[in-house]
Amino acid sequence: MWGFVLRRLIWMVPTLIVISVISFIIIQLPPGDYLSSYIARLEALGTTVDQATIDALRLRYGLNDPIWVQYFKWLGNIVFDGNFGYSFEWRLPVSQLIIERLPTTFLVATCSLLFAWSVALPIGIFSAVKQYSLGDYFFTILGFLGLGIPNFMLALTFLYVSNRYFGLSIGGLFSPQYLNAPWSLDKFIDLLSHLWIPVVIVGTAGTAGLIRITRANVLDELRKPYVETARSKGLHPMLLILKYPVRIALNPFVSSMGFILPGMISGEVIVSIVLNLPTTGPLLYAALLSQDTYLAGAFVLMLAVLTVIGVLISDILLAWLDPRIRLS
Amino acid sequence: MTDGPIISIRGLEVAARSRHGMLRPLRGIDLDLPRAATTGLVGESGCGKSMTARALLNITPSPMRITAGSIVLDDGKTPPVDLAALDPDGAPMRAIRGRRLAMIFQEPMTAFSPVHTIGNQIAEMLLIHEKLGKRAAKERSIEMLELVGMPNPRQHFDAHPFKLSGGMRQRAMIAMALACKPDVLVADEPTTALDVTIQAQILELLQRLQQELGMTVLLITHDLGVVARTTRRVAVMYLGEVVEETTTEALFDAPRHPYTQGLLGSVPRLGSRRGKRERLPAMRGSVPPALAELPGCAFHPRCPKAVAGLCDVVKPRMAEVAPGHRARCLLYPEVLAASVALEAA
């Protein structure tokens, strides 16, 4: 088991190097760079920028260097100084920008995940065990509705209803008076009163898919002969379902968990924009729009690294759950 | 201790509604299992053997359920109980299942959960039915593994099913089924998925345990050789009914039902007097689907001896055609009399 983990860790190194090269190429691919789009915007505002200024700026940001020099500068700074570069747009270090938003991002993402799982797993199991029952149909319809309604639509509706009928301040994670206040019980309660909206919205979309997957997985397992064996032993039906089919139906879940980690950072951009959430999604979106090279690059790299780590975690979990992987 | 059968099945029917009509895999089974002996249940695929086994434990796969008849379990120590009348998921049925009536399955690979150790799955039986702690259950499970001839039982307790060979898995399955020393063991094709040499070992093991523990065994198989070797009485099934039931010797010496005769005739024999060029007589067709509703005798379309106007009209009843030998074929006057009498009534 430990050999397996070590082997996987060593393999991560070349993977990450390749990923960093590809990330850098991807962010350099669009024509132009931050300066050209910056100048275009200034000119649109009627300001003329003389060529000398432009050249000075290009030199300062190292935009005249060949691409591989830029790459090694970029990677060297990250590896040796933990310096992800400077955001042109925000005029702040990239790392500071991202770190500011990470706690809220993980808070929203973790809460929506827990919400989606705690709703979807029991319903999925119920739907499988009572296949084609009234309850199964009810939850299936509800699930498809959740899958079909676009998230931003749901977000707008929630905003409208919570403001119109409950008088809550809308958007963001805090009411204005708590935004810069130190932590207190009141601020925490205020956070909770805002948090449930994105959690429910983001969770609903995930829930529908999860219900379908759980239902299909458990249904597959319910037909397996070992379920009949367990029945023949006189095991309580509820305990039986939880110990055998559900346990084995969880494996596909765990193997897809690798993609949850990057999804936490990049996911739900539209909902976050609509709800004005201080998360990383909108930041990534803006960085890509304005060709904010180093900010976008840091994101792409971070997403790739998180994917690799996520896959490693899910492989380890899977090996732990399924002896056929661990022992053979 | 009474001398009557430990299990007596009467008029047992299992059915389910389907898109195409009523599925009726069991159409009125009458069968007695004599105490502390092995009874064979034979027939082609699709005749309802396995469903009979499942109905016995009241674990018919949904949406199949017992729709008529009774299964009386009388172990001579506790009051007789009709299993067919119990709720399949209820506590009384679950207390019987595994403890007094246990089952072993055809595919020891898939019949074990792949992600739990065999020890866990054997000990579970003891944890469900006997008030044992985890450690005591483990010790008992290891004893059971030893009893069924598992090498290194202590190490294999922690083995996962995929680490064991087919024969060892079937031994583990037997250890699990016998963990609570059940009165009745239902073995559904226990050797079909195994190599021939392993088959013999497993059959020998089952026979030895049956005698040592004084168990009643219902051995379900399509292999007549297995029946000849291990059983005292045999029932032959066709399309959800028992068509012949007698002692093993009588069945092989003088089969009465044309279906049984066909089954026995289609077994190849070494050194038979049949000429080299002669073909092995094979039975025509196969068992009709569980949906089929045939007038008269269910076997008449395939029967070489069918009499037009009789076999396709009158429903045959089970009747004694020789002492201790019952059959369901209108060619015997006893059956004809019983069937016509019932038709008239």
Automatic annotation (TrEMBL), chain A:
It comes from the Bacteria. Residues 102-318 form the ABC transmembrane type-1 domain. Signal peptide: none annotated. It is a multi-pass membrane protein. The chain crosses the membrane at residues 9-29, 106-126, 138-161, 195-214, 248-275, 295-321. GO terms for biological process: transmembrane transport. It is found in: Cell membrane. SUPFAM superfamilies: MetI-like. GO terms for cellular component: plasma membrane. CDD domains: TM_PBP2. Keywords: Cell membrane, Membrane, Transmembrane, Transmembrane helix, Transport. Belongs to the binding-protein-dependent transport system permease family. This is ABC transporter permease. It comes from Devosia insulae DS-56.
Automatic annotation (TrEMBL), chain B:
Keywords: ATP-binding, Cell membrane, Membrane, Nucleotide-binding, Transport. GO terms for cellular component: plasma membrane. GO terms for molecular function: ATP binding; ATP hydrolysis activity. It is found in: Cell inner membrane. PROSITE patterns: ABC_TRANSPORTER_1 (PS00211), ABC_TRANSPORTER_2 (PS50893). Pfam families: ABC_tran (PF00005), oligo_HPY (PF08352). The keyword Transport applies. Residues 9-264 form the ABC transporter domain. It comes from the Bacteria. It is a peripheral membrane protein. GO terms for biological process: peptide transport; transmembrane transport. Gene3D superfamilies: P-loop containing nucleotide triphosphate hydrolases. PANTHER family: DIPEPTIDE TRANSPORT ATP-BINDING PROTEIN DPPD, OLIGOPEPTIDE TRANSPORT ATP-BINDING PROTEIN APPD. Belongs to the ABC transporter superfamily. This is Dipeptide/oligopeptide/nickel ABC transporter ATP-binding protein.
